[in-house]
Backbone:
C-alpha cells in the first residue's frame, strides 16, 4: 500500500466530514427499529391525550392541529437533548473524540455532520407523527405561504441544531452532570415551548423568555402559517418571528464555534476531556 | 518531509493537575507523568517504547499526536512542532490504541472504516479499495459487512488497526496495539507492521508496549521508560549486550519456607535476585557479575538444605535489562505503581 494517497483538503474535506459523520445517524435509524415504538407510538399517546382533553372541553378545532404539530416537533427536541447535547460526552467515553480531534478535519464539520444526520433522521419521525396524527384526528390545514413555511422550518432547525451544537461542548465540560441536565431540560421545555398549546396563553414576558428555545417561535410561526385562525393565536407576527429565528441561528452557531474551539484548547491543555481517567 | 528526524523531543515533560479530593487533602495535586524526555527517531525506523503500565508511554503518544500539550520542552513530528503546528502534523499521522472501542456499533466494519477515511479527505473509491485490501490482509474480508457491535474484542481491534494504516500516515503511533489479541492474531499484526515499515522508507512507526517479546522481535530501537523518564535507548541487541558480560541463571529449587532473595543479595558478585514461588517449588533468577559467583549461590542453597531441581544459564532478555535499570521486574513495578507508591 502506497503512502501517497490522494486526499482532499479545505472545503472538500469539510463537506466530506459532514457527510461521513451524518451517515451513521441516517443509517442507524434504519437498522435500529425501536424508534418506531419509542419515537412514534409513545409521542402519539401524549398527542392523543391532549386531543381528547381539548375535545372534551370544546376547545377550538385548530387546537387539535396545534397538538399534532407540537407532538411532531418534540422529536426534534429529544434529538437535540439526547443525540446532540450529550453526544460529545459519549464520543469521549468511546474514544471517538480523541480520534476526531487528531484527524486533519475540523471539529465543527463533525458537529455539523451530527446535526445534519440527526435532522434527516428526526424529520422522518416528525413526518410520521404528522401523517398519523392528521389522519387519526382529521386535522384540517390551510397553507398560507409554502415558502415562508419552508423558511421558518429551515431557520428554526438551523437555530435549534446550532443550540444543540453549542450545548454539546458545554455538556462535555460538565461531564457526567450532562445526563442529569438533559433529563432536567426535557419536560420543562415541553411546557415552555408550547408543544401542546399556543404560547400566547402565557403572559408576554414568559413567552418571550421561552422564545430563547428556537422551537418555541418556530412552532408558533408554523402554526400561524398552516391553520386558518393560526394568526389570531400567534405570539408575534410571522415576520418578526422569522427575524428573531435568524438572530438565534447566528448567535447559536457562532457560539457553538467559539465553544468548540475553547473545548479543544482545554482538552489539549488539561488532558482530561479526551479521556475519562483523571 | 524534509526533517532529519520523524520524531524529535527535547526536555519533554507533562504534569497533570489532579482534581481536588476533599477527603484526602494531604495528597499531592499534581502528577508528573513525563519528565525530561529527549528522543530522536529517524525516518524509516520502527521505534519501541517499552515500559510498565503508568510509565508515561500513553502520555508521550498523546503529546506526539497533538492531543495533549507538553508542560515543558518541545516535540516535533515530521518536522513540525506538535503544539504550535497541529494543522500541519495531523494530516501526516494516525494512531491506534489497544482496547479502544471507536466507531459506531450500528455500522458495519467497512462502513466504520469508510467513515473515518472521510475525516482524512480520502476519496470514497480509493478509500474502499484500501479498506478491502487491508481487510483481506488482516483476515477480516468475510466480516466486512458485519456490524462492528457483533465483533469479538480481537476482531474489533483488528478493525481499529486497519483504521490506523488505511489513511497512509507518514508517522503511525500504535499504543499497545496487540492488547486483547490472541497469540496468532498478535503475530499477524506484528508481521504486517514489519512489512508496512519495510515497504516504504518514508514511513515511521512508534509502538508502545509492555510486552518484551514484541519490542525485541519488532523494533529497530527501543527506549525503556519508567515513571516518566527514559532510562535507556538503543537497539534491543545493544541493550542486551550490556548484560552479556554478566551471567544470568534460572534455578528451580525445592519449596522452602523462609527462603528470601535478601539471603543472596549480600553475596559478592550478585547483581540482582528474583524469587518467584511457583506451584510446589520456587524459581530463583540471578544476574551475576561472572559465572564463578554461581558457586557461592549454590553453597548458600546447600547450607539451607534447599535442593536444586534444575539450573539453566540463559541469554539476557529486555526484561533483564529492565530489571537491571529499575531494580524490579515490570510486573512488580506495575504493582508498586498501582498501590499508589508510583510517581
Residues:
Amino acid at each position: 500500500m502506497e503512502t501517497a494517497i490522494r486526499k482532499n483538503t479545505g472545503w472538500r474535506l469539510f463537506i466530506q466530514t459532514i457527510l461521513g459523520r451524518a451517515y451513521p445517524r441516517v443509517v442507524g435509524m434504519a437498522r435500529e427499529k425501536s424508534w418506531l415504538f419509542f419515537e412514534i407510538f409513545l409521542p402519539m399517546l401524549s398527542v392523543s391525550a391532549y386531543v381528547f382533553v381539548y375535545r372534551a372541553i370544546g376547545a377550538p378545532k385548530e387546537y387539535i392541529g396545534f397538538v399534532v404539530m407540537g407532538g411532531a416537533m418534540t422529536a426534534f427536541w429529544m434529538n437535540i437533548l439526547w443525540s446532540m447535547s450529550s453526544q460529545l460526552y459519549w464520543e469521549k467515553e468511546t474514544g471517538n473524540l480523541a480520534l476526531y480531534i487528531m484527524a486533519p478535519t475540523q471539529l465543527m464539520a463533525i458537529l455539523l455532520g451530527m446535526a445534519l444526520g440527526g435532522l434527516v433522521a428526526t424529520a422522518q419521525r416528525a413526518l410520521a407523527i404528522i401523517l398519523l396524527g392528521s389522519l387519526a384526528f382529521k386535522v384540517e390545514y390551510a397553507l398560507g405561504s409554502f415558502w415562508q413555511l419552508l423558511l421558518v422550518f429551515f431557520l428554526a432547525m438551523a437555530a435549534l441544531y446550532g443550540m444543540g451544537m453549542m450545548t454539546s461542548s458545554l455538556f462535555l465540560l460538565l461531564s457526567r452532570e450532562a445526563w442529569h441536565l438533559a433529563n432536567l431540560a426535557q419536560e420543562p421545555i415541553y411546557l415552555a415551548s408550547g408543544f401542546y398549546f399556543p404560547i400566547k396563553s402565557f403572559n408576554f414576558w414568559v413567552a418571550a423568555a421561552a422564545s430563547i428555545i428556537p422551537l418555541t417561535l418556530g412552532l408558533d410561526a408554523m402554526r400561524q402559517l398552516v391553520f386558518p385562525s393560526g394568526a389570531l393565536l400567534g405570539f408575534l407576527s410571522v415576520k418578526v418571528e422569522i427575524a428573531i429565528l435568524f438572530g438565534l441561528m447566528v448567535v447559536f452557531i457562532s457560539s457553538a464555534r467559539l465553544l468548540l474551539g475553547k473545548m479543544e484548547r482545554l482538552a489539549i491543555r488539561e488532558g482530561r476531556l479526551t479521556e475519562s481517567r483523571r | 518531509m524534509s526533517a532529519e528526524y520523524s520524531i524529535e523531543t527535547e526536555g519533554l515533560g507533562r504534569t497533570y493537575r489532579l482534581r481536588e479530593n476533599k477527603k484526602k487533602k494531604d495528597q499531592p495535586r499534581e502528577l508528573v507523568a513525563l519528565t525530561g524526555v529527549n528522543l530522536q527517531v529517524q525516518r524509516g525506523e520502527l521505534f519501541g517504547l517499552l515500559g510498565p503500565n503508568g510509565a508515561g508511554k500513553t502520555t508521550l503518544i498523546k503529546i506526539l499526536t497533538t492531543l495533549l500539550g507538553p508542560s515543558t520542552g518541545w516535540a516535533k513530528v515530521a518536522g513540525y512542532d506538535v503544539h504550535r503546528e497541529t494543522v500541519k502534523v495531523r494530516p501526516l499521522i494516525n494512531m491506534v490504541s489497544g482496547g479502544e472501542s471507536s466507531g459506531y456499533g450500528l455500522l458495519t466494519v467497512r462502513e466504520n472504516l469508510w467513515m473515518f477515511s472521510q475525516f482524512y479527505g480520502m476519496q470514497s473509491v480509493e478509500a474502499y479499495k484500501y479498506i478491502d485490501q487491508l481487510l483481506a490482509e488482516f483476515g477480516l474480508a468475510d466480516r466486512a459487512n458485519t456490524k462492528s457491535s457483533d465483533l469479538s474484542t480481537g476482531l474489533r481491534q483488528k478493525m481499529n488497526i486497519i483504521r490506523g494504516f488505511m489513511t497512509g500516515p507518514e508517522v503511525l503511533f500504535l499504543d499497545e496495539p496487540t492488547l486483547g489479541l490472541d497469540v496468532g492474531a498478535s503475530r499477524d499484526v506484528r508481521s504486517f507492521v514489519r512489512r508496512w515499515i519495510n515497504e516504504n522508507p518514508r514511513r515511521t512507526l512508534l509502538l508502545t508496549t509492555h510486552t518484551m517479546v514484541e519490542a525485541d522481535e519488532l523494533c529497530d530501537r527501543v527506549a525503556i521508560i519508567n515513571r516518566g523518564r527514559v532510562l535507556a535507548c538503543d537497539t534491543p541487541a545493544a541493550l542486551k549486550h550490556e548484560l552479556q558480560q554478566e551471567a544470568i541463571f534460572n534455578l528451580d529449587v525445592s519449596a522452602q519456607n523462609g527462603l528470601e532473595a535478601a539471603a543472596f543479595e549480600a553475596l559478592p558478585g550478585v547483581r540482582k535476585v528474583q524469587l518467584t514461588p511457583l506451584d510446589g517449588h520456587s524459581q530463583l533468577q540471578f544476574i551475576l557479575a561472572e559465572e564463578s559467583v554461581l558457586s557461592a549461590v549454590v553453597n548458600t542453597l546447600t547450607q539451607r538444605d534447599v535442593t536444586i531441581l534444575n539450573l539453566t544459564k540463559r541469554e539476557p532478555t529486555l526484561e533483564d535489562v529492565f530489571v537491571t535499570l529499575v531494580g524490579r521486574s515490570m510486573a512488580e513495578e506495575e504493582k508498586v505503581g498501582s498501590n499508589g507508591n508510583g510517581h
Remarks:
- Chain A touches chain B at residues 1-9, 12-13, 16-17, 19-21, 23-24, 27-28, 31-32, 94-96, 98-105, 110, 267-272, 274, 278 (CB under 8 Å).
- Chain A has one domain: 10-270.
- Chain A has a mean pLDDT of 88.
